[in-house]
């Protein structure tokens, strides 16, 4: 990726994306998605994502569509990829979080996190951020598994 300076317009978009993330309901949705929702199987994933009656379904959709929209903005050139990657990690976190079951998810939902994955494939900075996050996620999963075994 050729290094280019971000424009003031890029900065405005990044700040607006940040502002949207701080909205009260979005904060609750993000807290649940990043902290509480840890499906180990595609079945556990679809129990929430494919059932509008599930109380967390709206939060799930809110967070996923937010990050896919943000990734699409980068892919379509609306905002600097380098600036976006420097300022945002949660989309990569979600992709890494679902990585172990992503193939199974995509069997039923082929469009799931496609923009975020495309971002990692197109821009080296995004790929590096994702790879780092994926390694951290593997460590976190091992830690969580150890904690669950101790409490069993």
In short:
With 152 residues, this protein is an all-alpha fold. Helices cover 75% and strands 0% of the residues.
Note the main attributes of this structure:
152 residues; mainly alpha
Report on this model:
The chain is an all-alpha fold and 152 residues long. The protein has one domain (10-147). The protein is 75% helix and 0% strand. The protein has nine helices and no strands. It has helices at residues 8-21, 24-36, 42-49, 57-75, 81-87, 90-98, 102-108, 114-122, 124-151. Helix 2 packs across helix 4. The chain is globular and about 50 Å long. The chain starts with 7 loop residues before the first helix and ends with a helix. The model has no long low-confidence stretch (mean pLDDT 94).
What is the element layout, followed by pairings?
Blueprint: H1 8-21, H2 24-36, H3 42-49, H4 57-75, H5 81-87, H6 90-98, H7 102-108, H8 114-122, H9 124-151
Number of strands: 0
Low-confidence stretches: none
* Share of residues in strands: under 5%
Q: Total helix count?
A: 9
Biggest beta sheet summary = none
The total number of structural domains is 1
The span between the termini is 48 Å
Instruction: Give the overall shape, derived from the CA principal axes.
Output: globular
H-E order: HHHHHHHHH
């Amino acid at each position: 990726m050729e290094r280019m300076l971000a424009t003031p317009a890029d900065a405005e978009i990044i700040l607006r994306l940040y502002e949207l993330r701080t909205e009260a309901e979005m904060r609750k949705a993000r807290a649940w998605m990043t902290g509480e929702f840890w499906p180990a199987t595609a079945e556990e994933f679809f129990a929430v994502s494919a059932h509008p009656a599930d109380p967390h379904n709206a939060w799930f959709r809110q967070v996923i569509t937010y990050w896919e929209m943000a990734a699409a903005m980068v892919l379509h050139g609306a905002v600097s990829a380098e600036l976006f990657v420097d300022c945002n990690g949660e989309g990569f976190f979600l992709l890494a979080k679902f990585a172990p079951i992503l193939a199974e998810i995509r069997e039923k939902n082929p469009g799931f996190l496609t923009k975020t994955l495309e971002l990692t494939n197109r821009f080296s900075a995004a790929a590096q951020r994702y790879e780092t996050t994926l390694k951290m996620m593997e460590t976190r999963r091992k830690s969580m598994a150890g904690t669950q075994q101790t409490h069993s």
